[in-house]
Each structure stands twice: as C-alpha cells, then as structure tokens.
Write a structure and sequence with these properties.
Helix content: 25-40%
Structural class: alpha/beta
Strand content: 15-25%
CATH topology: Uracil-DNA Glycosylase, subunit E
Order of helices and strands: EEHEHHEHEHHEEHH
Strand order of the largest sheet: 4-3-5-7-6
Bound molecules: uracil
CATH superfamily: Uracil-DNA glycosylase-like domain
Number of strands: 7
Distance between the termini: 51 Å
Number of domains: 1
Number of helices: 8
CATH architecture: 3-Layer(aba) Sandwich
Shape: globular
Oligomer: single chain
Length: 194
C-alpha cells in the first residue's frame, strides 16, 4: 500500500508509466524545518540511481549557486514535483503531477518553509497554477495558497538552463541570492530588533 511516513513515500503505484521507468522513489532531502524549500520537476537518471534530488549536473549548478549565496546544500530542503523518473526524462504529465501533488503538499506543510523556490517552468506553473514565462519572471515573488496556507513562492530558472545559456547563469545566481536574503528576513530576530 502507498504511504507517506513523515517525509518519505513508500509503495506508491499511482502512475503506471513511472512505476515502469523508475528504479526507486526519490524523496526530498534536507532539514525537515528548512527555511528554504527548492522544488524541481522530477528526478533524472542520476537522481533515480542515487535516490536524491539534484545530484547530477543540475545539482552541481544548484550547489554552486547555494555556495555563492553563502548557503550549503545541507542548509536547505530540496524536492521535486514528481518523485519518480519519467521515461527518457520527458516532462511529467498533468496526471502524474496531480498524482504526486498530495506528497508535495504534505512536505510543504511539514517543512513550513519561509520561501519556496521553484526551479524551472514545470514546478513554477505547478505551484503558481498559471502559465509562466520563467526567464522573464525569474526573481518574482508571489503569494500562493497551498493546502489552505499562504506560501511565498519565488520563481527561479532551472539550473540546467544555465548549462546551455550562460546569460541565465546570472539570473539563476541572483535569484538564489534573493532566496537566501528572503529566508534570512523571515528567520531569527536580530539583536537590533530588541
Ligand atoms: N532536475 C530536476 O528537476 N530535478 C532533479 O532532481 C534533477 C534534475
């Protein structure tokens, strides 16, 4: 039987094609109380093998962006809209996104992040619930209701986009920097606040 125990999903067989194509279910990683939650699309080949989101080339770009913003991978939570690798790395279908949505919503509820950063078009559109011109809108923040709670969503380009288009690298880096500042704002009170 399928089951989500805290933050990990077991036994899910909701998507026939993905049950075929996956080696494993790839859950989110990082602190269960992280201020920043990064949401990608779906695991690729290396994530499917390694069992962790963003461990391939896109993961290297993400790690670099985090480091440049003064963060470490271990400081943030990283997950995907869909937890199983789609065949030939195709985009997840709307049915697959819908099937996996309750797991993502539960993860958001548990982690209760200050900011959700969507990495690329698919997660951006999935969480904002509208069409998104991700390159133009990168860096924009929107308040969105997700399972009854208003969440702050920051739009970011997908790290893989920076591999093919160097101009997106700057956009990516400045958005991660912005995420870090936003999370800091909503975090602990500073001495000067007292
Ligand atoms: N791209 C994604 O969107 N997610 C991953 O986990 C890896 C690459």
């Amino acid at each position: 039987m399928e089951h989500m125990d805290d933050l990990s999903v077991t036994g899910c067989r909701r998507c026939e094609a993905l049950v075929e194509s996956r080696s494993r279910i790839v859950d989110g990683v990082g602190p269960a109380d992280a201020d920043l939650l990064f949401v990608g699309e779906a695991p690729g080949e290396q994530e499917d093998q390694g069992g962790e989101p963003f461990v391939g080339r896109s993961g290297d770009v993400l790690d670099d962006g985090l480091r440049d913003a003064g963060l470490a991978r271990a400081d943030v939570r990283i997950t995907n809209c869909v937890r199983c690798r789609p065949p030939e790395n195709r985009d997840p279908t709307s049915g697959e996104l819908a099937n996996c949505r309750p797991y993502l919503e539960r993860e958001i509820e548990i982690v209760d992040p200050e900011v959700i950063v969507t990495l690329g078009k698919v997660p951006g559109e999935h969480l904002l619930g509208r069409d998104l011109a991700v390159t133009n809108e990168a860096g924009s923040i929107e308040d969105v209701e997700i399972s009854g709670t208003t969440r702050r969503v920051l739009v970011c380009v997908h790290p893989a986009a920076t591999l093919y288009d160097r101009s997106q690298r700057e956009t990516f880096e400045s958005t991660i920097e912005q995420a870090s500042e936003l999370a800091g704002d909503g975090g602990q009170a500073e001495l000067g606040d007292f």
